[in-house]
Amino acid sequence: xxxxxxxxxxxxxxxxxxxxxxxxxxxVKKDRFERSKGIFIGGGPSFTLGKxxxxxxxxxxFEAGFIKRxxxxxxxxxxxxxxxxxxxxxxxxxxxxFISELYDEFGxxxxxxxxxxxxxxGDLGLTSAALNLKLNFVPVKDDSKISVYGFAKxxxxxxxxxxxxxxxxxxxxxxxPDEWLYLAEVPWEANDPTWSELGVQISxxxxxxxxxxxxxxxGPGIEFMPAKPVSIYVQAAxxxxxxxxxxxxxxxxxxxxxxxxxxxxxxxxxFPSVNLQFGLTFNF
Length: 284
Hints:
4 helices; 8-stranded antiparallel barrel; elongated; 284 residues; 55% strand; 4-stranded antiparallel sheet
């Protein structure tokens, strides 16, 4: 469903400008720029977008690439980018705390068991190769001072993720809800033998790993002195990365220990984000 939505969004974004490019006419299309090629570099902060998309908040992005003006409206070229997001414990909040009642084999109440798991790791790094499709709202000329544009960047990406490691603190409570007795501290790591003895096999998804996926960024931008030897641009890239594996404690709802599966806190799903980019283009 999400794939169809983004495909429709891309089509709605590109088709009007493709028609505008056709209206430029044969003469204008063939009119050559003094500088029709460029090498650009840029970067800036990145932010997760939407709700329940993981225990991440901010990161950073860097991009470098080549751009070729096909005509005064349309430009195209490849780029390489890197986007990083670090696991943020503040985004976890109380999604790492669980309470359950324990009973003996005869159904008699024993005590309340509480568990709090504190995590480290889970940082994401996305190294991507993209095709940049850039459409100017107003045809660019050699003496243009400002160029306002829209862009689409379909990409393929290699996602790297650091290992997720946690420590589960166990507490017991007999009667008084305000008095919890510390019981033990147990590692919450992939294949840890402590849990194996209890019949629980923590998932390999908590280990470090890499995976291939793809996605697309679209958005608006503004470029100053677009036909000069050096131009400056600012743009916002709204993106959706197809399913990847990351930390999302809020995906395990319920607040009871029964809600904690062997894959906790990992999920695999789409990852929306937005990048604010500032950069330079060296035109030649």
